[in-house]
Amino acid sequence: EVQLQASGGGLVQAGGSLRLSCLISGSGFSFDDYVIGWFRQAPGKEREFVGAISWSSGSTWYADAVKGRFTMSRDNAKNTVYLQMNVLKPDDTAVYYCSAENVWDSISYWGQGTQVTVSS
Question: Which residues contact residue 109 at a Cβ distance below 8 angstroms, ignoring those fewer than 6 apart?
């Protein structure tokens, strides 16, 4: 089973930066079989896709709302995926979740969220 732990959230002023981390652990799986994603959910809104990275290839995908501002990367040695968030806006305020989706059967695992608050 795959376990994920998100961290790095906090309070930042508009225009500032934060880096979120998603530590992936567990046993009985291959990292190469997973795409790691970041999602966010603001109060009163549905959870939305932010970005994703293929563990095997390193390919990344981003929501239009964050393209050019957010960057995902992975550290294979640390089993960690990062979400670098720059030029943050108040609209980026949300609880951010990381997920791992198996590319073969689409089974997903979720970590607990980390709160990001951007003040204007």
Answer: 1, 2, 3, 4, 99, 100
Distance of CA 91 to the CA centre of its chain: 16
pLDDT in tens, 19-32: 999 999 998 899 99
Strand order in the sheet with 2-7: 2-7, 18-26, 80-85, 70-75
pLDDT digits (tens, 9 = 90+) for 51-61: 999 999 999 99
Q: How many CB atoms lie within 10 A of CB 109?
A: 18
Cα–Cα distance for residue pair 52/97, rounded to 1 Å = 12
Name the nearest CA neighbour of 33 among 110, 112, 111, 105: 105
Q: Which amino acid would we find at residue 1?
A: E
